[in-house]
Amino acid sequence: MVQTKALSLTGNSVLDRPELSVSVAVFRDGKVLLAQRMFEPYAGYYSLPGGRVERGETLREAALRELMEEVQIKADIVDFVDHVELCEYDKTGNTLFHAVIAVFLAIWTEGEAQTGAEVSQVLWYDPLLPEAILMTPNLMTVLSKARKMIC
């Protein structure tokens, strides 16, 4: 039997079950907002802004809250894009983390993206360009789906 030692996406606590999270593909002038992660897993990689769903929140409410907390912008959610499931294991098969992330498509409405406590850099990325930066797993697939939905 493989022992489970799940770590949260922010590294703040240890969980024994998958973590429910959200992220938002925010588009503005054909580009999508990416945030560089400060913490493991994937510290230094670019990803969509997002985070954990809190008790009593809908997925959409969590997505908009996390967007404001992480990068200080507002957006209107257009649709659900997909879910991403991330599972990472150590060399002995222990689960390092397991997250199910609900990804939403949104249109920027207000604010200028800023770094914060969990984000070291932000950038508006053209999803039509080849991947030239470190990105979290499945990000290009999600961006492709989101871009098709917005066109």
Which labels suit this protein?
151 residues, seven-stranded mixed β-sheet, 2 helices, 9 strands, 43% strand
Short characterization:
By secondary structure, the chain is α+β, with helices and mostly antiparallel strands.
- Strand and helix order: EEEEEEHEEEH
**CATH architectural type:** Alpha-Beta Complex
Could you describe the largest sheet, including whether it forms a barrel? 7 strands, mixed
Helix content: 10-25%
Number of domains: 1
> Pairing-aware structural class of the strands and helices?
alpha+beta
Note down, in words, how this protein is organized.
It contains two helices and nine strands. It is α+β, with helices and mostly antiparallel strands. The protein has a single domain (18-145), classed as Nucleoside Triphosphate Pyrophosphohydrolase, CATH 3.90.79.10. Strand 1 (6-7) and strand 2 (14-15) form a beta hairpin. The longest helix has 13 residues, at 59-71.
Summarize the helices and strands and which ones pair or pack.
Blueprint: E1 6-7, E2 14-15, E3 19-28, E4 31-37, E5 46-47, E6 50-52, H1 59-71, E7 74-89, E8 95-110, E9 119-125, H2 139-150
